[in-house]
User: What shape does this take?
Amino acid sequence: MNGAAGMGPIVARDSRELRDCPFGLCDGTGMLYDEATNTAYDCRCRRQIIAQRKARSLSAVIPRRYYDVAFDRYPVNEIEPRAAIRQVRAYIDRVDEHLDAGRGLWFMGPVGTGKTTLAMLVSKAALTAGRSVAIYSLPRLLNEIRDTHRAERSHVDLLDRLTAVDLLHVDDVGAERTTDWVLEELYSIVNARYEDKRSMVITTNILDREALCEQITERTVSRLTEMCDELPLLGHDRRMDPRLA
Ligand SMILES: Nc1ncnc2c1ncn2[C@@H]1O[C@H](COP(=O)(O)OP(=O)(O)O)[C@@H](O)[C@H]1O
Ligand SMILES: [Mg+2]
Ligand SMILES: [Zn+2]
Assistant: This one.
């Protein structure tokens, strides 16, 4: 476990992920209190908090907007094609198996077709199963990598943790141009996960593979292609929905 060496003792109660309940239910302690019966009980996030300690200070919080994502609710019940939704369901039904095998999902499609929603659904399922998850938009991930650059130790720590987490969820891959140095870092993370058989869930709205390769390098795209099942979403952009016009 080379990653564990850089992580220090697993006691950091003040780390960021422990302050926020990923489901917005408890105060980040993993416990809820029922005043009526005067009892404390485990929050849905409890198992996940324990797993997450291993991945200290990675971003693991489902954004408020996606707390309630579920198969039987809007918009997931309207996202097309339905075959893609069935595939997401099959993934989630056996999420442990898929994570253990290092399999991931790649949602692709134009803006407003439900990519982020479905990716959050997958992350939520992994968190609920007690697995550690890191959720980033690509621009934010690249910023963090850049920010830790000067402090050698924290930089290595970040890369170790990004490699060790059970699921790395990166939204909006290809959304931003960046420097060669950062692209090299991105490749090393993706490649380390590839070699370690660790899953990734990504979304991208760049449908042209060549354009995507130009943004994040061909090597990275080809690794992601091997790790992830591609799920093209065909739905309309909601903002162009005639019902709403
Ligand atoms: N297939 C769909 N039909 C109707 N509305 C949708 C669909 N997919 C997403 N939405 C809605 O559109 C908005 C954008 O969804 P999001 O998952 O962020 O899309 P993307 O990440 O593909 O841009 C959200 O408000 C969501 O509720
Ligand atoms: Mg999105
Ligand atoms: Zn909680």
In short: The chain has one domain: 57-238. The first strand starts at residue 31 and ends at 34. The two ends are 55 Å apart (CA to CA).
